[in-house]
Design the sequence.
């Protein structure tokens, strides 16, 4: 492949609601450009980008796949991204390196919840967007309606760049509004088209739509707009410049259309991206920090020192880990030594590859703006910055959404603990939207992810790659213990038979603190009843119990403990004696201060179509949820509620089945609330049963 400068690169993400045709479109692109020798299909499991066994089995994209090809004097790096909410982490990380997104819409269904989800991610990263209305071959396809819906949802920047000549069966041609020519698509899946004249009966309609488009283009630039008002038309150069500017600054979201499965509209889309799509250079400079944490800007320029973002780690059979990197500045070659500014360690660059799905081609060098794969880096993971030490650059870490599901796992066979823990750790590094935590409080290993399928896939990979199996359990809830009254107790610890004796006596008061304040310890001992050095011993004992709990084994919170008196013995008083006395008197205090259990409450936001509102609210009520309000957002409703964590187990799947996959939800810890009495009794009984079983 020839050498491409930053302005000749097109880093593109394919994004949409699930199953609209991204993977099929990517396949069409590869077939059109001769990279693939036949056009694979998702249904047969033969596409280039969905090549993993789990992807073929489920017929969905799970992992971002990179595809690289040349088109119209440009090099395209296309990231085929998953649309399934479980794998949305891939969209978040890729959003850091793409310069434009092709947002696919279903010609028969229009804007869907998943469209909004990816739109928001693109909005957050200010990624220019081109819309592609796919499935134009479907019977209910309605281009005008979809454009209207997208305008309602995403504003008047959304504007048609094409007009389909026919919809449904047979969909075979479109009118290109800029050139006012008809593109008749080949029916042999080659992806190409013949240019023909616009049919008489469509000319007026096409003219009218063209005027809307041209006016939008004119608005992107004041000088062009002035000219447009004077003359009422723009020349080719003004159109090109205005359209490029409008797409780049997010004031124009042009809408194209096609049928990925028939490979129709693929060439015209790629031509459009090559001509008007932003290059990495156009979106330069990129914000970063220097070694001292000061904000800097890095130009996408091959003559400056090297820096790049590792945005994805692929774990490949027989090759090991491949790190996908976007080189922002400078260049890297095999053999270079670079610096990982997050891990603060050096990395040696081995082979550099160009990827098409699982197919790799060696490449000696990777330059500013480009995307490629590095193999076997020692200690570099998703989200890390690699940089030339001469000019240290740190790009912001990649932000992933809060997990929405959790499961606790235990080894199926004894002795696998270490393998499981290192396997899960590596899986987290390849996919940071999945989190593994060994929770010492709950004594469980808890996996958190973006959906049940996400966690199932992780557990399956653990088995395939590391040969270890785990059993899944509902995670325990991190309840808290607290008190609702004051208490005052005395405790004497005395062991004076045989050997060295122990003696300590502690008098303590405790009182409730406001919710969320944690723990306070104070000594009001006067007149030397307890010598100074023993006060920290008492506190240490109290803090032990704080972790272990006094009622059901959960951490104690929002309590103030005051030691106000006590006794000591000139010989037998010692640190350990006061620790024990502190611990025991505190336990007595908690138990007499009307203790209660608190449970974690989460804020959730459910986004769903209007027609699902009733079912979702009914379900939330049955889960002890408290609805705070509803907002409408475009075609969707957003329900905000507070709900106990204990009731969120399995919620992602319930929501999916309640709405046939049309709703999504996010969650965030809010606060702790007292547990209702009947639930509390159950939790305490369970804790006791578990304690007895352990003995
Ligand atoms: N009728 C029709 N089906 C399509 C089209 N594009 C994709 N599909 C089908 O839609 C399903 C999902 O396609 P896929 O490419 O996996 O969608 P993705 O989830 O967006 O990557 C598959 O069964 C495809 O064959 C299209 O243009 N027309
Ligand atoms: Mg896909």
Sequence:
């Amino acid at each position: 492949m020839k050498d491409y400068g930053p302005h000749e690169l097109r880093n593109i993400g394919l994004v949409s609601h699930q199953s609209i045709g991204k993977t099929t479109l990517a396949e069409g692109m590869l077939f059109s450009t001769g990279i693939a020798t036949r056009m694979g299909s998702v249904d047969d499991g033969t596409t280039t980008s969905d090549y993993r066994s789990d992807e073929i089995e489920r017929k969905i994209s799970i992992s971002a796949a990179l595809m690289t090809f040349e088109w119209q004097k440009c090099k395209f790096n296309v990231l085929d991204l998953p649309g399934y909410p479980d794998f949305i982490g891939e969209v978040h990380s890729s959003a850091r390196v793409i310069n434009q997104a092709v947002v696919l819409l279903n010609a028969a269904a229009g804007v869907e919840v998943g469209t909004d989800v990816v739109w928001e991610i693109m909005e957050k990263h200010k990624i220019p967007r081109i819309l592609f209305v796919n499935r134009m071959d479907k019977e209910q396809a309605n281009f005008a309606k979809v454009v209207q819906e997208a305008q309602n949802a995403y504003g008047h920047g959304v504007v048609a760049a094409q007009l389909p000549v026919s919809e449904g069966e047979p969909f075979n041609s479109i009118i290109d509004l800029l050139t006012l020519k008809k593109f008749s698509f080949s029916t042999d899946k080659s992806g190409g088209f013949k240019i023909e004249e616009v049919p008489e009966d469509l000319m007026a309609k096409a003219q009218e739509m063209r005027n809307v488009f041209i006016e939008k283009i004119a608005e992107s630039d004041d000088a062009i707009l002035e000219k447009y008002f004077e003359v009422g038309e723009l020349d080719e150069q003004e159109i090109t410049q205005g359209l490029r500017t409008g797409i780049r600054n997010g004031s124009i979201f042009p809408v194209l259309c096609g049928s990925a499965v028939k490979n129709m509209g693929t060439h015209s889309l790629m031509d459009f991206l090559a001509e008007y799509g932003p290059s990495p250079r156009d979106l330069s400079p990129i914000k970063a920090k220097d070694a001292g944490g000061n904000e800097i800007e890095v130009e996408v320029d091959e003559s400056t020192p090297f820096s790049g973002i590792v945005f994805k780690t692929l774990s490949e059979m027989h090759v090991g880990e491949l790190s996908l990197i976007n080189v922002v500045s400078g260049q890297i070659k095999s053999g270079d030594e670079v610096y990982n500014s997050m891990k603060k360690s050096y990395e040696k660059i081995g082979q550099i590859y160009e990827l098409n799905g699982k197919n790799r081609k060696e490449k000696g060098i990777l330059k500013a703006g480009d995307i490629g794969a590095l193999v076997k880096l020692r200690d570099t993971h998703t989200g890390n910055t690699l940089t030339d030490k001469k000019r240290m650059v740190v790009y912001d870490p990649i932000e992933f959404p809060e997990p929405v599901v959790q499961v606790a796992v235990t080894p199926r066979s004894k002795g696998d603990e270490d393998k499981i823990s290192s396997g899960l750790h590596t899986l987290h590094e390849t996919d940071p939207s999945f989190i593994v935590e060994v929770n010492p409080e709950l004594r469980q290993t808890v996996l958190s992810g973006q959906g049940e399928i996400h966690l199932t896939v992780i557990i399956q990979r653990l088995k395939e790659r590391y040969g270890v199996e785990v059993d899944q359990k509902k995670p325990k809830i991190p309840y808290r213990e607290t008190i609702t009254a004051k208490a005052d107790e005395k405790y004497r610890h005395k062991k004076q038979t045989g050997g060295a004796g122990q003696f300590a006596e502690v008098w303590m008061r405790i009182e409730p603190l406001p919710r969320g304040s944690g723990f306070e310890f104070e000594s009001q001992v006067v007149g030397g009843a307890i010598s100074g050095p023993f006060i920290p011993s008492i506190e240490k004992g109290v803090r032990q119990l704080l972790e272990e709990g006094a009622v059901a084994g959960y951490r104690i919170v929002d309590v103030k403990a005051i030691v106000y008196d006590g006794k000591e013995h000139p010989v037998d008083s010692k640190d350990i004696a006061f620790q024990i006395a502190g611990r025991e008197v505190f336990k007595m205090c908690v138990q007499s201060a009307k203790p209660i259990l608190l449970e974690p409450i989460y804020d959730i936001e459910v986004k769903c179509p209007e027609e699902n509102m009733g079912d979702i609210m009914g379900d939330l009520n049955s889960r002890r949820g408290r609805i705070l309000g509803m907002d409408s957002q475009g075609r969707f409703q957003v329900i905000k509620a507070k709900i106990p964590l204990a009731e969120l187990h399995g919620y992602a799947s319930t929501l999916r089945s309640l709405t046939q996959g049309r709703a999504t939800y996010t969650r965030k810890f809010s606060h702790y609330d007292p547990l209702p009495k009947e639930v509390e009794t159950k939790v305490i009984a369970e804790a006791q049963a578990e304690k007895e079983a352990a003995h």
About this structure: The chain has five domains: 6-202+250-276, 286-391, 409-473, 481-593, 598-678.
